[in-house]
Amino acid sequence: MIDTKPTILLVEDDEDDVFAMRRALKLAHVSNHLEVVADGQQALDYLSGTGGYSDRANHPLPFIIFLDLKLPYLDGFEILSWIRQQPALESIAVVVLTGSAEIRDKDRAYALGARSYLTKPPATDVLHEVFDSLKSYWVSKGRTLPVTSSPPSGRAVSAS
Description:
- This protein is of the alpha/beta class.
- It has a single domain, classed as Rossmann fold, CATH 3.40.50.2300.
- The chain is built from 5 helices and 7 strands.
- The protein has helices spanning about 15-25, 40-50, 75-85, 105-110, 125-140, and strands spanning about 5-10, 35, 60-65, 95-100, 115-120, 150, 155-160.
- The strands form 2 sheets. A 5-stranded parallel sheet has the order 2-1-3-4-5, with helices on both faces. A two-stranded antiparallel sheet has the order 6-7.
């Protein structure tokens, strides 16, 4: 069965960082479906709906992308630049998630259209802050925040 919750896309090539992100989302009680692609080319294929990602029912466009900067094939800056040139992807929030604390990387990411810049691994409270800060965007568009939370009881509720 296809998960109908809005999708989060994680573009990350390090399995330990993928594990850390899954854990952080779980601790933040975010129960949205997480898609993971391991390199820049897979990210472009996923977002453009080509290759193994052509079935949008199984690989829907995400509402948010967590993007590493250091990736095989295409780096995060190239992917971010490409995303911001695609009108169909303009409403997708891109959060750079990287090990780099370099000011020039942060400035470049924001100049290319990143909504936030986080250093790995993301703490649970930081993820809460990211989703809370993005809430104003969706509310301004007349939509509810597409983050689905699972309280400790396990019952899923939509965040609003």
